[in-house]
């Protein structure tokens, strides 16, 4: 029988609805990040850098691009005969068949996969956070404390603590209380959604809670283990960690990559971030181009002005175009004289000549004020913006649009324009 000390189960089935049109056709872990990566590259790279060579990736929502990106795991050296990376979608079973209905339910439906490796420990991860962590150090901590469950936690400002699952730990790191998004938090240690379980403990909990609807780790499994008297410990992490769950935090995390001294460094030799690289030519910066403080992907051609921005692979910035404080994803085209300010332009999009994106005063978005906020203009993938139009802030545009879609040539701040059915 195959024997692995620790395997990882990576939850990558989420929609990420707060990212709006960016996740209309793609799972959140497959959204582009940092010019050449996708969000899932970070936990996958952490696994291989931590010596974990067996990873199950649980997919559900819009999995095509994610599956294509991961493939057989070659970029992460996870193309193994034994172990490696396995894509685990929901599947039809004899009798009751169901979608994954919660984080723990998804893991429960893959008991047979985990059993096949007879692990001592199972690491549970989310596929949608940006961070670097050595899971081996966390495992050593788990063993040293004779723990049944270890929860990675990080200190957060007390005023933000009610947004998270909060753990209260004693001076030895043992968890004495677990609060799920409490109104009055008793500590500032937030759960990061990263758990190490001793395998028999996880298996027993999942089987016992099998009938629980929408079974979830934070709401059900952790409280169950705590109530049973299992040893739960808090593993404190003090590095960079970002949940890029909103357009604002996603934009911010990208912009932090180009700080003079970035808090999250993509250039560290000892902790590389691996990704699937397309076979494309090098970037080209023309003589008349102006480029200042940017990340620019391979195959990009820049003839205009780019400042404080992240430009994905294969993009084209034409002569006279100006891109400031923006994220432009792969194969997007910014035509001559177009101006972008604090915009997110998704893949395979064309911004027409002399159009202005992100102009005017801010106004709350009328359709989804909590999503299309932060003063951003968001353009969905495969969208066409015609020449000579203006688009305001807190806006979203999807589909092939024409001049007639813009009364007086303007989409005012707070408005949305949906020609692709992506915004509903």
UniProtKB/TrEMBL annotation:
Pfam families: Hexapep_GlmU (PF24894), NTP_transferase (PF00483). Alpha-D-glucose 1-phosphate binds at residues 100, 165, 180-181, 191. GO terms for molecular function: ATP binding; glucose-1-phosphate adenylyltransferase activity. InterPro entries: ADP-Glc_PPase (IPR011831), ADP_Glu_pyroP_CS (IPR005836), GlgC_bac (IPR023049), GlmU/GlgC-like_hexapep (IPR056818), NTP_transferase_dom (IPR005835), Nucleotide-diphossugar_trans (IPR029044), Trimer_LpxA-like_sf (IPR011004). Residues 8-257 form the Nucleotidyl transferase domain. Pathway: Glycan biosynthesis; glycogen biosynthesis. NCBIfam families: glgC, PRK05293.1. Homotetramer. This is Glucose-1-phosphate adenylyltransferase. It comes from Candidatus Choladousia intestinavium. The lineage of its organism: Bacteria, Bacillati, Bacillota, Clostridia, Lachnospirales.
